[in-house]
Amino acid sequence: MIGAAFEMALAAHRGQTDQAGMAYIGHVARVAAGVEGQNEVVVALLHDVVEDCDVPLSHVAAQFGDEIAAAVDAITRREGEAAESYYARVRANPVALAVKLSDIADNANPDRLAMLDAATRDRLVRKYTKARAALTLR
């Protein structure tokens, strides 16, 4: 299942780059490396395919089952959605929460942020600090 998720992510993110100009699949792989458990790794590999690519959630469900699809759905932002609603949905799904925290850890990695201009770096540090705080509320 992990191999199939990697193949789907690789195809979906083909040609995409991150803000530093690096292949986006590297981010996906680092997020997957930051979690434990098969479902968590699969969701980490797929965490942006619905939101950022043309992969319908129904395709994720058909290939990986309802539990994986539910976690991918939980981590997928909706257009115009309030941050509070998004974070509450992620917190409610333990797999999505583990993946989102790994996603934030990679996005907030000082070595990666150092490749960006100061204004972007400062904006992202604030963004990810708020996100981490919102996700770890209990």
Tell me about this structure:
This protein has one domain (2-135): Hypothetical protein af1432 (Orthogonal Bundle). The protein has helices at residues 2-12, 24-33, 38-46, 49-52, 57-64, 66-75, 83-91, 94-107, 110-113, 118-135. The model has no long low-confidence stretch (mean pLDDT 95). 31% of the residues are buried. With 138 residues, it is an all-alpha fold. Helix 2 runs antiparallel to helix 3 (38-46), helix 3 (38-46) crosses helix 8 and helix 6 (66-75) crosses helix 8.
CATH homologous superfamily (4th level) name: Hypothetical protein af1432
Helix content range of the residues, please? over 70%
Rg from alpha-carbon coordinates: 14 Å
CATH class: Mainly Alpha
Biggest sheet descriptor = none
Q: Mean pLDDT, nearest integer?
A: 95
Shape descriptor reads: globular
| CATH architectural designation | Orthogonal Bundle
The total strand number stands at 0
Low-confidence stretches: none
Spell out the helices and strands N to C: HHHHHHHHHH
Strand content: under 5%
Count of helical stretches: 10
Overall structural class, as computed from helix and strand content, comes to mainly alpha
What's the number of structural domains? 1
For the terminal residues, how far apart are their CA atoms? Answer: 32 Å
Stated plainly, the CATH topology is called Hypothetical protein af1432
